[in-house]
């Protein structure tokens, strides 16, 4: 019989046959649908006109998510592990807000939690061709983590020193009302965002601001250089896929021109 | 006789002799002329002073484009294929707006279609030295497409979560009137554009904004790293295609200009 | 006896055993605590509410820093060298402001000096895993120093010429009140910060501004390219140092983990 | 006798002995002095207070530049070639403005020409250690010229199409008064400058703006990638300096591992 528990678990957790793929695509559609409803509902004019329908749709989506969550809890072989896993918590957070809203009035906080539903897309994406690429990006960033931490510390030191200086130079009359605000301005400037809500007006302040801007313009090269060189270095393994294996010991990294296996010394034909 | 249909087709479709080149340059001049007229006509003061002349020039350009279109349809050996091709549709769109304007009053939509005339430059450019380079760029981008898609998804997730958070933290009083508006602000901030039309005013909002800015400043390294490493990788083959092998010992890295094999000393013809 | 002068010096200056590490972590906590107090104290509302407590905390931190400074002066084997070193001066600057504030009224200047306390973190960081990475970054930047100087000169030339031009084109009525102000605007624009406090309003000014923006957008590639290629080049040697040669045939690319020579099959010890 | 014409020409045109270096440094000081005076003189308050002194200093600098120009014309062996060369024209432009100001009243145009004096620094710089680096940068940019042209064409197409679209969508009421102004806005946005003097207010306009921003954020990778990969490729020649030459024919590019000269077939020991 086709609708066995094992078959259902396959449909829900795998994605290598038509039924599983249909399930994944339907889930994606519901996730994006629920997010679009939440986003549109935040627009005052749309909320007033269609707020009732948005609420009904939201209840519908939550009902479907609840069924899916119950299915997953029931179908998984290791229930406790799933419930306490990253995806298990995300899945629960996707349905909780609506049930909580029956008791709690703070709907704004709930809409933030509802936005987290987007994270559910990651699981479905993981099953596709993005997996290798995402791993590649994650590993590149992980390998550069120490350099990036050092870079962020340097940035924060610049921000603190420059923020304090600008607070002293410009003062509250130009909008630099406190060191935290001046640090916020320094970040806005160093990252070349430049909102313009706070700007220096004294010549000395404008000179200092120019220095921060040139610094920000120059040091943006550092994270780029870090990630670029890391990626360039990491490219090589991709190359290894074309290599042949040793017929004796199965060692997989036999390179072109190798006459003997590096691991077992077996001659390669 | 020189003005045969075959000769005309050569002039219109090729670009390897003086007559063809003159045709291409004249066409380029007309395209740029028509675009400059459209741009200048949108300036209120110039429209009032010279609107009449701009209209006459536009009619003239359209007349020339119409002749060119008829020529191409007549001269091509595969008329249907040309008419339905990308360039065929662009060529038709270049003349349609003016003829439509006799019947339709919405001149603004037509001016957008007229801007598409610039796309016609691509065909003329394709015949020049840009071809190889354009292919190089296109292939680099295509090879990085999966990574770029993943990157865009990550960016949109950040934008949705941050937009929702800022909408909740700052609220309509600071200009964050809805989640879509807050997402627009998050894109403005993450891409380091920073218009300043909407800015956070609460300390918590400014802290969140600082995080988004540092994030945007850091992750700009990712697309750059992707494209850079892709381009660096793609450079190599270009070099190796020119190498030949030694006819005596089979050494594969004979470079241009080598007269003797570096490995066996055999003379290379 | 454990509390000897030698043991104390080890705790204060080294960081390879639990006692030394505890000392370093306590110092880090005090440094960050004192900086957070200084930052919060600059907020008007917090200063009014808790200014008294911030002052007492500041006195406490300064007392601890003073003890630490006396300890370092007493424990070091070369007192004069320490006092005149970079870290010695930073350590002194960390405690001076508070003592000076008993005599001098200008508290703002003192708060800038207090911000320099963050520099003390560098010494503690130097003892950790960041050392190698920081050296890597510093060397990359040092190797690119000539190129970066040349780049900065080019940027400043563009800023001077463009600033003068914009001052002439736009004039004081648009906010370009003098060449220094116009140069400040040119830096704001070239670095893509774009505050928007001063913006061109004449068509010619907007055209010139567009040129500067495209220029700034294009030349940001130069520092990035410099640092990236420098980092990529610097990566390689790191890898090759670990290689050994085959003792039998002299093949030079034996990698870590290889048990047999790839060329002759000789076993590697 | 030491003060011969030949010795003077050496001092003025070369820079490899103390006298020549002193001459170059004095010239640099005068150039920077004259530029600083021009910049300060544009500040209204300083002009009112010290305008008289600035004018006298300017006359002094011009007198020194005039002597230098006469010296160069007199000392060079090929007078006509010098006068019509790039540097000859720059040298003349450095002194002309002041003499012209006796006849012409437009002092603003003259101050722009005076800013060009900074270009004179290039010649003096050329004689220093920057020469090789500047050549490196120039060649890297030249090698990428075709790609950069193509990139700029793509950017301008995006700017025209997006500018026209935004003019149609937002219209004059939001500040998009004409297509040229909308194109200026598109450049401000695409290059991530984001002044905020003109910003979209309609939802559709904000959506289009978001697309332009993400596009600008993504395609900044292209020029960076072009220049980076070009620089990485160009690094190699530096490597060739370590190679040995053929003892028979003097061919200079013998690489490690070569057994026979590639040019003459001579065996290498």
Automatic annotation (TrEMBL), chains A, B, C, D:
Q: What's an example of a GO molecular-function annotation for this chain?
A: voltage-gated potassium channel activity
Which is a Gene Ontology cellular component entry for this protein? voltage-gated potassium channel complex
Give the GO biological process terms: action potential
Localization in the cell: Membrane
Which coarse location class describes where this protein primarily resides? membrane
> Could you list the residue ranges that cross the membrane?
21-40, 52-71, 83-105, 148-169, 181-201, 207-227
Every Ion transport domain range: 21-234
Q: What is this protein called?
A: Voltage-gated potassium channel
Q: How does it sit in the membrane?
A: Multi-pass membrane protein
SUPFAM superfamilies per the record?
Answer: Voltage-gated potassium channels
Please give the superkingdom of this protein's source.
Answer: Bacteria
- What InterPro entries does the record point to? Ion_trans_dom, VG_K_chnl, Volt_channel_dom_sf
Q: What keywords appear on the UniProt entry?
A: Ion channel, Ion transport, Membrane, Potassium, Potassium channel, Potassium transport, Transmembrane, Transmembrane helix, Transport, Voltage-gated channel
Does the keyword Transport belong to this entry? yes
Pfam families xref list: Ion_trans (PF00520)
């Amino acid at each position: 019989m086709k609708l066995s528990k094992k078959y259902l678990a396959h449909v829900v957790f795998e994605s290598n046959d038509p039924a599983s793929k249909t399930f994944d695509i339907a889930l994606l559609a519901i996730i994006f649908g629920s997010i679009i409803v939440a986003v549109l509902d935040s627009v005052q004019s749309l909320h007033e006109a269609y707020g009732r329908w948005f609420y009904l749709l939201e209840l519908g989506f939550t009902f479907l998510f609840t069924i899916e969550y119950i299915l997953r809890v029931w179908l998984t072989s290791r229930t406790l592990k799933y419930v306490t896993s990253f995806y298990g918590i995300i899945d629960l957070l996707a349905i909780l807000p609506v049930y909580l809203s029956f008791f709690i009035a703070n709907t704004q906080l709930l809409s933030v939690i509802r936005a987290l539903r987007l994270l559910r897309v990651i699981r479905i994406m993981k099953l596709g061709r993005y997996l290798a690429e995402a791993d590649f990006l994650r590993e590149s960033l992980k390998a550069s983590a120490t350099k990036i931490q050092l870079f962020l510390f340097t940035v924060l030191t610049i921000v603190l020193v420059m923020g304090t200086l600008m607070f002293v130079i410009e003062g509250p009359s130009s909008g630099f009302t406190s060191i935290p605000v001046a640090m916020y301005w320094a970040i806005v400037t160093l990252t070349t965002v430049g909102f313009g809500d706070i700007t220096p007006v004294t010549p000395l302040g404008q000179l200092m601001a120019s220095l921060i801007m040139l610094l920000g313009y120059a040091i943006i090269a550092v994270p780029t250089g870090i990630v670029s060189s890391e990626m360039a270095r990491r490219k090589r393994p991709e190359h290894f896929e074309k290599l042949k294996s040793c017929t004796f010991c199965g060692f997989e990294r036999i390179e072109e021109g190798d006459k003997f296996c590096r691991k077992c010394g077996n001659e390669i034909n």
